[in-house]
Write a structure and sequence with these properties.
14 strands; Cupin-like domain-containing protein; 335 residues; 2 domains; alpha+beta; 24% strand
């Protein structure tokens, strides 16, 4: 397999007290070594797995969490089944206490199944944790999630929000690809996914060069880094990233936020609508629409030839205009 050629920018001895959004506004991935070393949950994890479990349980409520379980032969890969009619894991619901017990017990099993707790909202399932594990993201309103499990492999995928991922236990490897590497990652279905996001179908540990001949190009542009408990990584919006849990017990708390107002909507909805309305048009018409999208959406030329009061949806869209536009779209979609 081709090795990544580029390294991720790193800040050594980072301090959470001095962390600010301005440190990541160049929209490039960046690692902050030791950023959350002083978090109570990180201190607990460094003292031992049992201490980590006790710390998390201190914040947990009784409401069951969703856990993915994959057999040992999956080798930690959270993926589809062989013929892509389903998945190679089964979801289960259990109290966090039960999951933590299973996770600790699995450390001593040679053929342990993969246990994976993904994207669990801290505010709902561990209220109070954010109070003791603050992150100074004062200009945004991030969603905070917990990820926990044993050795696992999550295929390359992207997220629309910006992402600050903080390792709280164990060791994780991150491999990042810039958005323009999309054609070389062989992305699977958009609407049939293991966990809500489209993923690369390439097994990065053993890529098939005949089935995925361009993947080596993606690897030439990849950024790869290993993080330990206390380290954090900033993953910009739309960057593809695959994550590997390297420890028998590893955990992560991440913060997601968007750089545009929520009232402007989710671009993925626009993509799906474009697939519906444009994707099946004849080639010549699709190319014509591509020019329109380039003109009005992607290139965003100056509109000095149109008076500001007459620019309509081509101009600045505030919350009122967004509400009117959304209502108009819904009305047309429902016809």
């Amino acid at each position: 397999m081709s090795e990544p050629l580029h390294s991720i920018a790193q800040v050594q001895g980072a301090s959470i007290e001095h962390f600010a959004l301005a440190m990541i506004q160049d929209a490039r991935p960046k690692v902050f070594r030791g950023l959350v070393n002083n978090w109570p949950v990180v201190s607990a994890a460094k003292a031992g797995d049992e201490q980590l479990a006790a710390c998390l349980q201190h914040y947990a409520v009784d409401e069951p969490v969703t856990v993915y379980q994959a057999p040992a032969e999956a080798d930690g890969r959270i993926f589809y089944n062989q013929d892509m009619t389903g998945f190679n894991f089964r979801p289960d619901r259990m109290p966090l206490r039960q999951f933590l017990t299973s996770l600790l017990n699995a450390r001593h099993q040679a053929d342990a199944e993969t246990l994976y707790l993904g994207s669990t909202l801290v505010d709902k399932w561990l209220p109070g944790l954010k109070r003791d594990h603050a992150m100074p993201l004062t200009d945004v309103a991030p969603l905070t999630s917990l990820w926990l499990g044993n050795r696992s492999r999550v295929a390359a995928h992207f997220d629309f929000p910006d992402n600050l991922a903080c390792v709280i236990a164990g060791k994780r490897k991150f491999t990042l690809f810039p958005p323009e590497q999309l054609p070389n990652l062989y992305i699977g279905p958009l609407d049939f996914t293991p966990a809500g996001q489209a993923i690369s179908l390439v097994d990065a540990q053993a890529p098939d060069p005949e089935k995925f001949p361009r993947f080596h190009i993606a690897m030439q542009h990849a950024l790869e880094v290993e993080l330990q408990a206390g380290d954090a990584i900033y993953i910009p919006s739309m960057w593809w990233h695959q994550v590997q849990g390297l420890s028998a017990v590893n955990g992560l708390i991440n913060f997601w936020w968007r750089s545009s107002p929520a009232f402007l909507g989710n671009p993925f909805d626009a993509l799906r609508h474009a697939l519906l309305a444009i994707g099946q048009l004849p080639d010549q018409q699709r190319q014509a629409w591509k020019h329109l999208f380039d003109q009005y959406v992607f290139d965003k030329p100056a509109l000095t030839h149109i008076p500001e009061h007459a620019q309509g949806v081509l101009g600045e869209i505030d919350q009122t205009a967004a509400r009117q536009l959304r209502a108009d779209l819904l009305n047309k979609l429902n016809r």
